UniProtKB/TrEMBL annotation:
<keyword id="KW-0812">Transmembrane</keyword>
<dbReference type="InterPro" id="IPR007436">
    <property type="entry name" value="DUF485"/>
</dbReference>
<feature type="transmembrane region" description="Helical">
    <location>
        <begin position="98"/>
        <end position="116"/>
    </location>
</feature>
<dbReference type="Pfam" id="PF04341">
    <property type="entry name" value="DUF485"/>
</dbReference>
<keyword id="KW-0472">Membrane</keyword>
<keyword id="KW-1133">Transmembrane helix</keyword>
<feature type="transmembrane region" description="Helical">
    <location>
        <begin position="57"/>
        <end position="78"/>
    </location>
</feature>
<protein>
    <recommendedName>
        <fullName>DUF485 domain-containing protein</fullName>
    </recommendedName>
</protein>
Length: 141
């Protein structure tokens, strides 16, 4: 039995820049869109790429949030329950409370920069993979 094969210019892989016609490449994954061509969000949510994205987000966000909240609540608890410790002079008029308060700003900036770097290196490529499931970027470009 013979199959009717599409010409090389009609294959999805050829349009996407792949080798296309008559290759031994794995077939391209089906796009996760509904009948109208809109993204099928339920199918995307079940996809392995989306699960990997959620995992990568949790790997950074959960520990960072836990550590920052512990650091902030520790500062608040020290301010409320150890005022004599927080009033300990460190350098001139700078006391422990002021120093820890300034370190709150520094840790917020460090956390923001760390997340931006993590997102750029680990999340953005995965977001691109999830978007490719619907070919949404190809339509915009």
């Amino acid at each position: 039995m013979t199959k009717a094969l599409p010409p090389p210019t009609d294959s999805r892989r050829a349009r996407a820049g792949g080798r296309g016609f008559a290759t031994f490449d794995d077939p391209a994954d089906a796009l996760l869109t509904d009948a109208q061509g809109n993204p099928d969000f339920a199918a995307i949510q079940r996809s392995d790429d989306f699960r990997e994205l959620r995992k990568r987000i949790a790997i950074f966000v959960l520990p960072a949030t836990t550590a920052f909240l512990a650091w902030y609540l520790g500062y608040v608890a020290l301010s409320a329950y150890a005022p004599e410790f927080m009033a300990t002079p460190v350098l001139g008029v700078l006391n422990t409370g002021l120093l820890l308060g300034l370190l709150q700003f520094a840790s917020t900036i460090a956390l923001t920069l760390g997340y931006a770097r993590y997102a750029r290196r680990r999340l953005d490529p995965q977001v691109t993979a999830v978007r490719a499931l619907t070919a949404e970027d190809e339509e915009r470009g």
